[in-house]
Amino acid sequence: MKKLRLLFLFFPLLLSAQEQLLDTVKVNLSNPNATLNTHLYFLQPDSYQPNKSAKTIYGLENKKAIRKAIKIKQILDGKGLFVDFTKVPINSNYVDSIGVTAVSRYIMFPDRMPEIYLEKIEGKWYYSRETITKIDAIYNSVFPWYIDKFQEIIPVFGHKKIGSIEIWQILGFIILFILNIFIYIIVKKIAFSILQRIHKSVLKNISNKDIDNELKKLAHPIALLICINIIELFIPSLQFSITFNKWIFLALNIVETVFWIYVFLKLVKVVMKMYSEFTENTHSRLDDQLVPILNNFFTGLVIVIGVFKLLNLFGVDTTTLIAGATIGGLAFALASQDTVKNLIGTIMIFLDKPFHIDDWIEAGEVVGTVERVGFRSTRVRAADTSVYQIPNSKLSEIVINNKGLRLYRRYNTNLGLRYDTPPELIEAFVNGVRKIVIEHPETRSDSYNVEFTGFGDSALLIMVNVYFKSLAWGVEQSSKHRLHIAIIKLAAELGVEFAFPSTTVTIEQFPDKSNLSPKYNTDKARLESSISKVISEFKNDKPPENIPENL
């Protein structure tokens, strides 16, 4: 009984002491940290003094300022925006350096709620004029008009609590979840239909089952993202506590970021497949080689940006990370200049396109077929099937002879006849070779040269300059074979002999011996008959089949 009396005696004293303690807590607007602390502290249940909290609102009468201060706190609570006072500046002269001009303001949540911020007015920190102007509109967007009416029709049973959550809040969350299931099913079909139309409009008359499958996979996360945004829109209406909202919004933001990463990865895959289909219809094969390079680049870019976004959600200062990565990247670039040069060389190759895949090129001492263009080097396969890896930095600087871009393959050679060949036979041989070139199916009959061009050390020189129609190396060699065989047959038929480098001592005549010089038959009719015979055989000679185009 005495203890009860003592309790009644000291209870008024305790209340009086608490009130005196609250009265001793003064309004402090000297810096952003003090202003936020003043606003939120005097709106807590244990220290509820809205008059003092309203001091953070500049230029309004007391009642309006109280309503504005309360709405700001309700918005922060509804969005789960928990102020970390350890990160709020205590400098009274704090300047926001992010932006075009540096101003005395502090934005608490620049990513999620940039409209609510503090600014320095007449030496003190208040909620900005822009914030006060927009706060009613922001409040109505967070807490729609029907919330108050909905609260009025909730029965007493709905306000009973299970733990710290009321029953109506649990039922509201369940209803919101069920509605989102139906929305997900509908939006997924609509998203897939829209993506298919975009695909058909970009690549007309081209259908691909693989792309359709990827579009279906892309439609799933798009629908889920819309559902997440709907949940984020209506969660504040359920009026959970700030602690609950903080964690649920963090979970939703993490899931949303992961889905966005997935969406962009799938989008990169779909775009690359569409681009791959496009490049297959072009003549250039260098574009085909660009597909995997662009795919790897954009995939890496999406992952890096996504990781930075996730780190930002967990409170990591990504600005510091980016600055550190920039410095480290600069040091790495200085230490690996050759790699950077090769990357720039790769870009130059794809921009200038000095060659395409499967082109036969001469690059310095390397001669062969281009097989692959990578980030660092280009692979060239020589005629003996050996492989050369040429750094792209060097390849972009040296002179490249792209034989794959030739209109025709030129072939030039000299035929050496013996010095004792009569002029009539030389003329007949030249005319015969000309006719062979004209009748050859793989040579240009309108552009060739077969002429007696000079006197060599051991032979009379007949120049043969022809152009083969096919650019394939294997076809060219087969065409040369047919041309050479026909020329040898012509020489044999005419009785013309080819010379070779030699030193010959000729004794014109021994006593009682006949002349050792070869006897040439220069009968005109016989020469024409021989040429006709060789040309007829050449026409009837079929070229070999299954000729390999390249080595």
From TrEMBL:
Which keywords describe this protein according to UniProt? Cell membrane, Membrane, Signal, Transmembrane, Transmembrane helix
The principal localisation class reads membrane
Q: Where does the signal sequence lie?
A: 1-17
Q: Which residues form the Mechanosensitive ion channel MscS domain?
A: 338-402
Specify the Mechanosensitive ion channel MscS C-terminal domain's residue ranges: 413-498
What does the record say about its membrane topology? Multi-pass membrane protein
Keyword Cell membrane applies: yes
For this protein, the record's InterPro entries field holds: LSM_dom_sf, MS_channel_C, MscS_beta-dom_sf, MscS_channel_2nd, MscS_channel_C_sf, MscS_channel_TM-2, YnaI-like
Q: Does the keyword Hydrolase apply?
A: no
Q: Which domain of life is it from?
A: Bacteria
SUPFAM superfamilies annotated for this entry?
Mechanosensitive channel protein MscS (YggB), C-terminal domain, Mechanosensitive channel protein MscS (YggB), transmembrane region, Sm-like ribonucleoproteins
Regions crossing the membrane: 167-187, 218-235, 247-268, 289-308, 314-335
UniProt-annotated location(s):
Cell membrane
Q: Which family does it belong to?
A: Belongs to the MscS (TC 1.A.23) family.
Q: What's this protein's name?
A: Mechanosensitive ion channel family protein
Q: Which organism is it from?
A: Polaribacter marinivivus
